[in-house]
Amino acid sequence: MFPLNFVGFEGHFPGNPIVPGIVQVMAGILTAGEGSPLRLVKVNRAKFVRIIGVGETITVVATNTEKGGRMNAAVGVTVGGETAASFTLVLEPAGGQQ
Predict the structure, then answer these.
(1) Which of 56, 66, 75, 78 has its Cα between 20 and 30 A from that of 84?
(2) Is the separation of the CB atoms in 66 and 30 below 8 Å?
(3) What is the pLDDT of residues 34-50, one digit of tens each?
(4) What is the dihedral of CA 32, 52, 43, 68, to 10 degrees?
(5) How does DSSP assign 40-72, residue by residue?
(6) Phi and psi at residue 46, in whole multiples of 5°?
(7) Do the beta carbons of residue 24 and residue 77 sit within 8 Å?
(8) Is the pLDDT of residue 14 over 90?
(9) In the prediction, which pLDDT does 98 show?
């Protein structure tokens, strides 16, 4: 849940706070990595279709596959069962090469 004092709301947007897309992407990285440090290489097919506001709880699900030594994570972000965002992340271990 994102309380009104959540740092991500600062400047995004005054008087109408919403969860920034980058916060949703970071949640996807953390979910895909299941505790392992990962480096974001690329975001593909990002669709942000619902605003997430103060006090809302999100659910993040990542389905991981491997391709060429990198992880592809298909991520879905929902609020109360309603799709808020979907995107695919290309990730590699935090110490990996570009």
Answers:
(1) 66
(2) no
(3) 989 999 999 999 999 99
(4) 20
(5) EEEEEEEEE-S--BTT--EEEEEEEEEETTEEE
(6) -80, 130
(7) yes
(8) no
(9) 47
